[in-house]
Design a protein that fits this description.
The protein has 261 residues and is mostly helical. The protein has one domain. The protein is built from eleven helices and no strands.
């Protein structure tokens, strides 16, 4: 992990500039430009909430409609960032084969760039959720932990995407299955429901799902003013472990990438 910290710190300015360039490239030619950073999460959240509440009539016992919307948003925003990072980042090495011999910008940072870009929208979206929570009277000291949780999510996503991006070099079918994996994760993650609403026979899906831990921690800190310390601890351990594993795998195998792409 210390090798990654040294690499990131040493290339921090170059990484920052490439993230900005990637963000600018995303909005080139759009009439509304960078406004989509705010519009995209806002529109998606509004549509998702409308479907779940008005069409499907889903309700959480003990929560008002406004609080239920906050429950949805605090789970959906992190998931959108995670899914975008996984989808774009998995193809990062194959899509940037010209950089495989580039010592100025190592391939590990190419993957990191895509993960960070995917989480910029989440940062804006979570800020909107925070404003909505404050407007509804949810002002808790536990919200000071949100930047830590946000950082843990990036670490977890980066480690996982380092793994999938590496595997995708050798098994290109993985790139095609990512949308299916994302859809499956959306179904088994408590976005529009809480763990208490899950039938006893399916409880294991939330117990072993790191995304479920992440959403529980976000909701506890943001809405309920309670820190689920057990889930936070599990999230910290898993994030550190998957980050270290992902870095080790991509570092060990990157010398042979050029032979496969």
């Amino acid at each position: 992990m210390w090798n990654a910290i040294r690499l990131i710190f040493g290339k921090r300015r170059l990484l920052f500039e490439t993230v900005l360039l990637a963000l600018k490239a995303r909005f080139v030619g759009n009439a509304l430009g960078a406004a989509w950073v705010i519009l995209y999460p806002g529109i998606f959240l509004a549509l998702y909430a409308t479907v779940m509440i008005q069409i499907l009539g889903v309700r959480t016992p003990g929560l008002s409609t406004s609080n239920y919307v906050l429950v949805i948003f605090s789970g959906l925003v992190p998931f959108l960032a995670f899914s975008e990072s996984l989808g774009v980042g998995t193809a990062a090495i194959v899509a940037n084969r010209s950089l495989l011999r580039n010592t100025l910008f190592p391939i590990e940072l190419v993957v990191m760039r895509d993960v960070l870009v995917g989480h910029v929208t989440m940062g804006i979206g979570m800020l909107l959720v925070c404003v909505a929570a404050w407007y509804n009277g949810h002002l808790h000291g536990t919200q000071l932990l949100l930047p830590l949780v946000y950082g843990l999510q990036i670490v977890m996503a980066l480690g996982l995407v380092w793994l999938t991006a590496t595997l995708n070099v050798f098994f290109r079918d993985l790139q095609q299955t990512i949308p299916i994996i994302v859809l499956m994760l959306m179904m088994v993650s408590p976005i529009a429901y809480t763990p208490e609403m899950v039938p006893a026979g399916l409880k294991f899906l939330t117990v072993v799902n790191p995304l479920a831990w992440l959403m529980d921690v976000y909701r506890g800190c943001l809405i309920f003013g309670e820190v689920p310390w057990d889930k936070l601890f599990l999230l910290m351990v898993f994030s550190a472990a998957i980050f270290s594993l992902g870095l080790r795998v991509i570092t060990r195998l990157k010398p042979v990438f050029v032979d496969y792409v």
